[in-house]
Amino acid sequence: MGDGIRPDRSGPLPLHLGDEVQLKKPHPCGSDRWRILRVGADLRLQCTGCGRIILVPRAHMERRVRRLFPAEAPALPPDQF
Ligand SMILES: [Zn+2]
């Protein structure tokens, strides 16, 4: 997935299903990469290290993203709620 993209702080981050984000602070398991499972007012993220799933407010998350790793192609089906 290359070196990723540094977020452009001039507007909302372009976050999509299946993308991965690197956060400034690593998860306790040691991984700092999370896969996006749902996009909305809240984001559902899965840790790529331990598989833990969290739900966080989007505004909260956007301040913590260091790099974006866009999905190569839409790999995940739309979330069904
Ligand atoms: Zn983890």
How would you summarize this macromolecular structure in one to three sentences?
6% of the residues lie in helices and 32% in strands. The model has no long low-confidence stretch (mean pLDDT 88). It has a domain at 27-69.
Strand order of the largest sheet: 4-3-2-1-5
The overall strand count is: 5
Structural class: mainly beta
Helix content: under 10%
Keywords:
5 strands, five-stranded antiparallel beta sheet, 81 residues, binds zinc ion, mainly beta
What does this 3D model show about the protein?
It contains one helix and five strands, in the order ββββαβ. By secondary structure, the protein is mainly beta. It has a domain at 27-69. It has a five-stranded antiparallel beta sheet with strand order 4-3-2-1-5. It is globular, with a radius of gyration of 12 Å. The protein starts with 19 loop residues before the first strand and ends in a 12-residue tail after the last strand. The model has no long low-confidence stretch (mean pLDDT 88). The structure holds zinc ion. Zinc ion binds next to loops. The site of zinc ion has 7 residues, from loops.
Topology:
Blueprint: E1 20-23, E2 33-38, E3 42-47, E4 53-57, H1 58-62, E5 65-69
Antiparallel strand pairs: 1-2, 1-5, 2-3, 3-4
Zinc ion (ZN) is lined by residues 27, 29, 31, 47, 49-50, 52.
